[in-house]
Amino acid sequence: MRIFIDPGFVDRAVERGFDGASPFALAHLPVPPSEKTAFLREGMYAWLRRNPLFDSVAEPDAADAVFMPFNLGKVRAERPDIEGHYRGLAEKAGRPLLIDYFGDATDDVDGEGVLVLRTSKYRDRVRANEIICPPVIEDIGAQYGIEPLPKPDTPSIGFVGLADKRRAAGWVSRLIPYSRHDYALTALSWLGSQRGRERSGIYFRKRALQAFEKDPNIATDFLVRRFWGRGKRARNVIGAEQMRDDYIENMRRNPYLLAVRGRGNFSLRFFEILSAGRIPVAIDTATPLPLEDTADYVRCCLFTDWRELGSAPARLSAFHRATSESEMQSMQIAARELFQRYLRFDVFSRDLFDHLLPERLGARTEAPVHDVCEARGVE
């Protein structure tokens, strides 16, 4: 696919210190590795720097689309002029505009001819001009060699991560277990409002952890943090290596792993669980998933609607009793295969630019730049 990114403008923006590069365009942007990407995802980011996903053309008139190669959230927070520049380019050339809106935001992006690549939205609010994408994550199964587990006598579910934002000590922290935002949305949910699903990920994580811990028929393996595992505090307090070891070993020990949204309405953890060949026990807050019409998530995932969160432990117990040893092994293998075939970021990205976007835009690309099947074998 032929894409115009305006390399001169890009170079000037990067030289002035703007670092909101889209992962899709890393091979075309002069950006150094960041501390954040080096912490967990440097392997995939390094691959993206080496392997262009599209043909960059010199003029917008020769392109199938104009692509703003920076994240929209970062642009709007620090350099809103960049968005205006690319909207103007696309409009003048009469070409579609591709926008990367990865991250936690769920608001709509307006504009004729604008196509948005994003990770977070609500299922019933996904627009025709949006494509839900998997996040950039490490391929845990390939990196750490995690093998399928046999069926345990008691279902064992794991979780390592942020689920407690209390900072004050003693009674103050117990009095205010979550934000006023969550309190307000809880009240609305009692009135039948869909807004209850917009409560914080911390709220849903705490409720889910408490529900599983109360169930005597389930073995829980939970390590609750008070800070985000990819942030500076995690690296400084515990250390990146120890943080990752705890997380991976928890995945290695448990066939089931809890997946609950974070700040945005999507879960990095969900995709990491699949990559490890484990079974996600997902609390569904109307989260759209990439390629839902193609990828068979039900085959290897357990979903519980957020309004029925309290029933998640009983659902897991019933599923575990009804599942044979061979079925559990097959389900873990299917989770790994689903990730490899559709959701690993290099595979998805090549499929996106070689097939999905040309089909969506009616692009004039004569043939795919890459072989997607070949990409699926790239480590």
What does this entry look like structurally?
Helix 4 (72-78) crosses helix 5, helix 12 (268-275) crosses helix 14 (325-343) and helix 14 packs across helix 15 (345-361). This protein starts with a strand and ends with a helix. The protein has 379 residues and is an alpha/beta fold. The protein contains 16 helices and 11 strands. It has a 6-stranded parallel β-sheet. A 5-stranded parallel β-sheet has the order 8-7-9-10-11, with helices on both faces.
Helices and strands, with pairings:
Layout: E1 2-4, H1 7-15, H2 35-40, H3 42-50, E2 55-56, E3 65-71, H4 72-78, H5 80-93, E4 97-101, E5 114-118, E6 130-132, H6 140-144, E7 156-162, H7 171-175, H8 180-190, H9 201-214, E8 219-225, H10 232-237, H11 240-253, E9 256-259, H12 268-275, E10 279-284, E11 302-305, H13 312-322, H14 325-343, H15 345-361, H16 372-375
Parallel strand pairs: 1-2, 1-3, 3-4, 4-5, 5-6, 7-8, 7-9, 9-10, 10-11
Helix pairs in contact: 4-5, 12-14, 14-15
Question: What characteristics describe this protein?
Answer:
Rossmann fold; five-stranded parallel β-sheet; about 375 residues; about 40% helix; alpha/beta; single chain; elongated; 2 domains; 16 helices
Helix content: 40-55%
The fraction of residues assigned to DSSP E strands is: 5-15%
Span of the ends, CA to CA: 23 Å
Order of helices and strands: EHHHEEHHEEEHEHHHEHHEHEEHHHH
> Which second-level CATH architecture of the largest domain applies?
3-Layer(aba) Sandwich
| Mean pLDDT over all positions | 86
Radius of gyration, in angstroms, nearest whole number: 21 Å
Q: How many helical elements?
A: 16
Strand order of the largest sheet: 2-1-3-4-5-6
